[in-house]
Write a structure and sequence with these properties.
The complex is a heterodimer of chains A (477) and B (422).
Chain A: H1 44-55, H2 78-84, H3 87-90, H4 102-119, E1 123-125, H5 131-148, E2 156-160, H6 166-173, E3 177-181, H7 191-197, E4 202-207, H8 220-229, E5 233-237, H9 250-253, E6 257-259, E7 280-282, E8 294-298, E9 301-305, H10 322-358, E10 374-377, H11 379-385, H12 389-398, E11 405-406, E12 415-418, H13 426-445, H14 447-450, H15 464-469
Parallel strand pairs in A: 2-3, 2-4, 4-5, 5-6
Antiparallel strand pairs in A: 1-7, 6-7, 8-9, 10-12, 11-12
Helix pairs in contact in A: 2-10, 4-10, 5-6, 10-13
Chain B: H1 2-5, H2 33-45, E1 52-53, H3 66-72, H4 75-78, H5 90-107, E2 111-112, H6 119-129, E3 137-141, H7 146-156, E4 162-166, E5 168-169, E6 172-173, H8 175-181, E7 186-193, H9 203-212, E8 216-221, H10 223-228, E9 239-243, E10 259-263, E11 276-280, E12 286-290, H11 297-300, H12 313-349, E13 355-357, E14 366-371, H13 375-384, E15 387-388, E16 391-394, E17 397-401, H14 408-420
Parallel strand pairs in B: 1-15, 3-4, 3-7, 7-8, 8-9
Antiparallel strand pairs in B: 2-10, 5-6, 9-10, 11-12, 13-14, 14-17, 16-17
The chains are: A alpha/beta (477), B alpha/beta (422).
Chain lengths: 477, 422
């Protein structure tokens, strides 16, 4: 499909502005832009048709099943969009007097208290813009905590090899040395490996529970004790919170600090790659290091309050992705205490149901119950007929479903990671399982043809090697 | 379903974990959608949306064409994840490719990415892109947005990088102070164009000084100013970053906004975040993919250029659709109206006794006044008339902003209020 630049015709313009009603001001020519500004020149209907056509070449949760593991692609209720679009929220300036934005501050305060209740933490900042940004912020808190105690030798972050890639990357961005420890085949922490890794140089262990294989690590209390005994902190990667909301809380498991993904667990739409929101919750001992300002309440009035001299500073220009926060708050308000719990229970049920239906054809990594997601391997199929996890993903596209996450976690060969979420019906899950099982049969019937998927999309498999070797990142006429 | 799974109840899914069960979660019962809608309408009503706004300072009110909002409500854009599966995500990937092209066009740069969190984190990321092993100091103009400076500090301190400020002269970054501080341990210099006080920097002269000292040069730019002023590339910058909120995003109490980055080609493999590239499928069809992923966290883990995963994709699409709608002419027209209106407002303000401009240097759409009357009093009087005044910088200084949405009538009304302040 042509780019918008190729549709440009000189002289067209689709914005309709009032004529300037003051004298034109002209800058000295020496300051002016000499480079041509080659932005598209198109009419309004052309803009509409171009981007509508692009939207038809995309696939969202509203289009169908989206079991992308680790991403919690649950349905995004329309109410959330409606409340986030209220002019009373979109029309306020981040630097207007706090007495004129009491509704906004109340919403932020309420959300932060509810997230504290759900995670078992004492304080929450809503500032980080995304999950990885939350991780980054949380690691800053950890760093500040140790340094403030004069404990300057803690320069290592321990990360299991099953962890999300953002964990070690966020640690490195904070100047930490990353110590990778091996996991058992079910992704659980190898306690001996952990005992050998901790020491006076340990700043923290970053751990998601359930882990990335979808298994709840039952040794969590021991893990917390090993880390704490060594003087380190325990960090919760909230990517997998959708398994345990309302039943088990990170704070009660012994975690000191947690990041959440409002765009996963709390139903805010992902927008094709953001905006997300990555609040960070922490225990009281870490609160004085939070980025500021935070919202506080006194006598029914809400204030943007500085955290104080020990704050890490700030990680965003203003207070975070405010409209995303509103959507998450609307979600929590509708579900309430019981609904939050039920959402996770159903997410776990749906994952177990799919796993039970698929496990005869694919080896799985949990002997009994998985949590909100599960990982299967195409290793055996690959050995027998050469068909890979990638081939299965591409074949699923032709059947009208978004593929699961592939090749993650790294500890599982030819991994397919399914996270159906709680918002899918039994009928959808049955259809998806039937589809996947039918694809297995199709693969064995003609492996070579199977590798030609997808066939029904606007493009076939793209040449990613050339894309990376000879990058073309902008359109050139 | 429970039978297939082999459990008798939902609780049994968590068998063996009972000792960890939450005792009491302090959360009220759920409500109907109708009740929650009402709750939010009431909250929204507790906020004051001003009739006219003369406050900028990092968040700007501009006219948003209806096509922007209409196209952005398309669920395929809203409810998709990051486009990992290229074949079913060509629309999102092509949108990002167009965004990258527009940012490169605006800044004059050669490469760009899919977006960053906001204008401040983009500046921090950009500075880190220029970091060198043997040099550990970055010079930052005193006229960088104070919150951006805070974010930069937060990002740079754990890396052991030292930040030194460059003083101002008449609201502009001082060339002589810059030259004096450009010691061999400086790896980069950062300035804002226009700067926090609205003043237009002599960015080309700064670029020459920076190059002569062998350091990298990063400019934090405002998108409409970019359409009017000499491009960062032409000023010798290696990297241009900025806040994209003015390009179709409402004020929204500070977010979601949009960080953007343009860079010279030699820095392409140091870019943070997602990047889309154009390639082809086996049949020679144009195809767009996420590319240069060897920089990224899911491949490189602790050796990655950053941990960015989710960025601000839908905001980048907003900016793309806005720039396609405004086009070459519209972008220049908005820039021209911004500077013209701000100059009308400033010229009329200084006619009021007790009002003068703090700086005589050239400015874009923001300027600082020094007043005999206290800033608080001015802001309060304006609020009484449904006007959001500029940002109080000190007891007697205010940073004002005007854009194409401020009509002459609105500005005259503001001026009338100011005349009454004692």
């Amino acid at each position: 499909m042509k780019t918008i630049f190729e549709k440009s015709v000189p002289g067209k313009c689709a914005i309709s502005l009032a004529a300037c009603d003051v004298p034109a001001y002209n800058l000295d020519a020496s300051l002016l832009r000499e480079t041509p500004l080659n932005l598209p020149e198109v009419s309004e209907v052309e803009v509409v048709r171009h981007y509508t056509a692009l939207s038809k070449r995309a696939y969202g949760v509203d289009d169908g099943f989206y079991p992308l593991g680790s991403c919690t692609m649950k349905y995004n209720p329309k109410l959330n969009e409606e409340v986030a679009a209220l002019p009373g929220f979109t029309g306020i300036h981040p630097m207007q007097c706090e007495c004129t934005v009491q509704g906004a501050l109340k919403a932020m305060y309420t959300l932060s208290r509810k997230l504290a209740a759900i995670t078992g933490m004492d304080e929450v900042t809503l500032q980080p813009a995304a999950g990885a940004h939350g991780e980054y912020t949380a690691l800053q808190l950890i760093r500040a905590y140790h340094l403030d105690r004069g404990d300057t030798g803690r320069d290592k972050i321990i990360v299991p090899d099953s962890a999300h890639g953002t964990n070690p990357a966020s640690a490195a961005m904070n100047g930490y040395t990353v110590v990778n420890i091996p996991s058992a085949v079910d992704g659980c922490v190898d306690l001996d490996a952990l005992r050998n890794a901790v020491g006076p140089d340990t700043a923290a262990l970053m751990l998601t529970n359930p882990n990335t294989v979808g298994i709840f690590d039952k040794n969590i209390a021991k893990i917390a004790q090993i880390v704490h005994d060594a003087g380190g902190l325990l960090y919760y990667d909230g990517a997998n919170l959708n398994a345990i909301m309302g039943t088990i809380r990170p704070g009660d498991m012994g975690y000191d600090v947690v990041h959440l993904n409002l765009h996963k667990t709390f139903s805010t739409p992902h927008g094709g790659g953001g905006p997300g929101s990555g609040p960070v919750g922490c225990k009281a001992a870490l609160a004085k290091y939070l980025p500021g300002p935070i919202v506080t309440e006194k006598d029914g009035k809400y204030h943007l309050t500085s955290v104080g001299g020990k704050s890490i500073g700030c990680v965003k220009t203003f207070y975070g992705n405010f409209l995303v926060m509103l959507r998450a708050l609307a979600y929590i308000e509708v579900l309430g205490k019981e609904g939050i719990k039920l959402a996770s229970q159903l997410a776990v049920l749906n994952a177990n149901y799919m796993m039970a239906r698929l496990k005869d054809k694919f080896p799985t990594y949990s002997s009994d119950i998985c949590m909100h997601e599960f990982v299967v391997s195409c290793d055996k199929i690959k050995e027998e007929i050469g068909v890979t996890a990638l081939d299965f993903a591409k074949a699923m596209i032709d059947r009208g479903m978004h593929p699961p996450t592939i090749y993650f976690p790294l500890i599982v060969h030819e991994a397919l990671m399914f996270e159906p979420t709680e918002t899918e019906s039994k009928e959808t899950l049955d259809w998806a399982c039937d589809t996947v099982l039918d694809l297995v049969a199709e693969a064995y019937k003609d492996p070579a043809a199977f590798k030609q998927h997808p066939r029904k999309m606007p493009i076939g498999r793209p040449d990613e090697v050339t894309a990376a070797r000879k990058p073309v990142l902008i359109y050139k006429a | 379903m429970l039978d297939v799974v082999g459990v008798k109840s939902l609780e049994q899914l968590y068998q063996g974990l009972e000792s960890l069960f939450v005792k009491d979660m302090d959360l009220p019962a759920g409500k109907s959608q109708q009740e929650v809608a009402r709750y939010f309408e009431n909250l929204a009503a507790e906020n004051k949306v001003f009739g006219s706004i003369f406050l900028g300072a990092g968040a700007y009110q501009h006219y948003i064409p209806p096509v922007v909002k209409s196209l952005l409500s398309r669920e395929e854009f809203v409810t998709a994840y990051t486009p990992y599966q290229a074949e079913m995500s060509q629309g999102i990937l092509q949108g990002i490719f167009e965004f990258q092209t527009m940012i490169a066009e605006l800044t004059g740069m050669q490469v760009s990415n899919a977006s960053l969190y906001d204008g401040s984190t983009a500046l921090a990321d950009g500075i880190l892109m220029l970091a060198e092993k043997k040099k550990n100091k970055v010079l930052v103009s005193e006229a960088i947005h104070p919150r951006s400076l805070e974010v930069v500090k937060t990002y740079l301190i754990p890396q052991g990088i030292q930040i030194e400020k460059v003083a101002l002269e008449n609201g502009r970054t001082s060339l002589s102070d810059l030259k004096a501080k450009l010691t061999p341990d400086v790896f980069a210099v950062a300035v804002a164009q226009p700067n926090f006080f609205g003043v237009i920097e002599d960015a080309a002269a700064i670029g020459e000084a920076v190059k002569a000292a062998g350091a990298g040069y990063i400019m934090q730019v405002e998108p409409f100013a970019c359409a009017m002023l000499k491009t960062p590339f032409a000023c010798g910058a290696d990297i241009a970053v900025g806040e994209g909120q003015p390009l179709g995003m409402p004020l929204s109490f500070g977010g979601p906004y949009l960080g953007f980055v343009g860079a010279r080609e030699k820095l392409v493999r140091k870019l943070t975040g997602r990047i889309v590239g154009k390639t082809a499928d086996a049949n020679g069809n144009d195809a767009y993919v996420l590319t240069l992923q060897a920089r990224e966290q899911h491949i490189r883990r602790e050796k990655a250029a950053s941990s960015i995963c989710s960025n601000q994709a839908l905001c980048a699409l907003t900016a793309t659709i806005y720039m396609a709608t405004a086009g070459k002419t519209g972008m220049k027209e908005v820039a021209s109206q911004c500077i013209s209106k701000a100059h009308y407002l400033a010229a009329e303000m200084v006619k009021i006794p007790g009002f003068r401009l703090k700086y005589s240097a050239e400015f874009f759409n923001e300027f600082v006044t020094v007043t005999d009357a206290p800033a608080d009093e001015i802001i309060r009087k304006c609020a009484e008339k449904n006007i959001l005044a500029g940002l109080k910088l000190s007891e007697h200084e205010i940073l004002w902003c005007a854009t194409e949405v401020n009509t002459k009538a609105d500005m005259d009304q503001l001026l009338a209020v100011l005349k009454e302040v004692k």
